[in-house]
Amino acid sequence: MQEATSVSDGHGPGPSTLKYARRIVLLQYEARLPPTSSAFVWPPGSILLRAQAWLDRDLFGENKVGSSRRYRTLFLRELCARLDAAVQVECELLRSQGVDEIEFPEVDAALLERYVEAMAGGSSRPVTTISSSTPDDEFTTHYWPCSGRSQAESDDDDDDLLDSYASVTIREEGSAISKGTTGLRTWEAGLRLAGHLVSEPSLVTSSGARVVELGSGAGFVGAVCAKLQVMSTAQVARTFMTDMPGQVITRINDTLATNGLDSPQSCVEVHELDWLEISAERQQSRQRDDLPMLNFLNRAKPSLVLAADVVYDPDLIGPLVESIRACLEAGTRECQALVASTIRNADTYGAFKASLSAHGLSASVVELRCPVVPIPGDQCIDMPDLRLFPSVHDSALHGRVELLCVRLE
Ligand SMILES: C[S@@+](CC[C@H](N)C(=O)[O-])C[C@H]1O[C@@H](n2cnc3c(N)ncnc32)[C@H](O)[C@@H]1O
Prior knowledge:
Layout: H1 15-30, H2 45-60, H3 69-96, H4 109-120, E1 138-145, H5 151-156, E2 165-172, H6 188-199, H7 202-205, E3 210-214, H8 220-231, E4 238-243, H9 247-258, E5 268-272, H10 275-284, H11 292-300, E6 304-308, H12 317-330, E7 336-343, H13 346-358, E8 361-366, E9 372-373, E10 386-387, H14 395-398, E11 400-408
Parallel strand pairs: 3-4, 3-6, 4-5, 6-7
Antiparallel strand pairs: 1-2, 7-11, 8-11, 9-10
Helix pairs in contact: 1-2, 2-3, 3-4, 6-8, 10-12
The chain binds S-adenosylmethionine.
Pfam families: Methyltransf_16
GO molecular function, one term: S-adenosylmethionine-dependent methyltransferase activity
GO cellular component, one term: cytoplasm
């Protein structure tokens, strides 16, 4: 590893390393990753110190979706503390080299001012808000690299750190169960499934791909899927996002509007699809043909079914598995379902797998792919890869995430 030298000696990290440092701070800030958690990848102090002059503009400049004041304060407290510690180290080094005090580095004044403002309860500077949001709503934005502009080209441009990235912004409720539903925040399995799709976009962008998502919740996976389709040259790829009627469907529509995916020409549709009703319709399919859920699935004719964090309630396992089977039966010959689950309770997950088998469905574990932010090749920097769609999920505490590929036997 190459240790960065002092601010004053002119041999510090190169522009692409500084840009990488700025980029990973921005990506994690926008994902609202808790800044004091061990999951937050902070650049070494010496690099952070050299990057600090850009950070106020990078993080709080125009057209940024505002974070909640609480998150902003926590983040700025940690950032300023890290910068202060780096300043102390640099000053010590300069003193030991007998350098004049006038050259000593300081924490950037704009960041300090921003921190004081956040603590005082507001900002005198404008922050972009999204229609229907309140100042304390928490919006997270997750980015991933997309083709079009190479990382090297983007590294030459000082202005836009994430020019070669695509993103989805999502409104998140703080607590796991909010307003009586689990569907108003993004769950770890959803983040991981979205990461898998971003790593293997052809799953959803191949020509004529038709993706039905079960239990879309706040809409992250489906919105990522639709963005991948919009960005690809694939013809007629479509995404159908589904969930229970009511507030979750409203939230999915809000998410699509926030991300510019709500135009009539958009490749994404939102549908009410209750697994209990699908199960009931399947029982009645011999007696009646006004079967809105099954008719919808026949019209959608999926080539891929997605579901994230839908295995948690033992009472719902039967209807869920019947719904997966109904999707596969209505789908194309190659249709498969990718089901990402956080295994919180081995018995519940075991019951799900047993139910798949009992319903004539095969299930195989797929290795979850995980996109990372590429580290610039021209510098040796002692930083771990930053996983995209970062979170504080700890598998040992909260459960391992597993991806199953389910097919008709
Ligand atoms: C834990 S959340 C997961 C949300 C999202 N997939 C994610 O990963 O962030 C479970 C989702 O399943 C939906 N759900 C629960 N029971 C359902 C049912 N009977 N029919 C359809 N969706 C249901 C909930 O509304 C919720 O959106």
